[in-house]
Amino acid sequence: MLNHNNKRNTVETIKGGVAKDARGQIRFVNDFDMSLVKRFYIIKNGDTELIRGWRAHRIEQRWFYVLSGSFEVKIVKIDNWANPSKDLPIETLNLSTENLEVLHLQVGYGTALRALEDNSELLVFADHGIEHASLDDYTWPVDYFVEMRDISLGL
Known about the structure:
Elements lengths: L6 E2 L2 E5 L1 E5 L2 E5 L10 E5 L8 E5 L5 E7 L1 E8 L13 E6 L4 E5 L3 E7 L5 E6 L3 H4 L4 E2 L6 H7 L3
Antiparallel strand pairs: 1-2, 2-10, 3-4, 5-12, 6-11, 6-13, 7-10, 7-12, 8-9, 8-11
């Protein structure tokens, strides 16, 4: 897992917190500057076996926050947009509601997402409007990258 508020290349986690009192609780990530955000969407996989990916963005950056449950997020830095190397290193992060953090991926990364618990929901923020989405959408099969083959084939 990345350290809180740690930048490594262009991957960063932004630490949040929780305030509790007799009325309940408020989860927050006060250090998350949302001034670049243009839209958001929520991902809820149908089950915990589905791996949603690979999807990458050359121009768009994204921020991920778990609303409920937990997700395994695999991240790969794309080296060649026309034909990425199949043996690129993959970093695996586990995000959950208990982490109380936002994962920030700047441009140039691909992700593969898997819910680790039923009914998990992942809130994703993007810095470009929906009209831009089809112009910056790169996808590959889940087993494209060598490190993913054993996982996706159930080996």
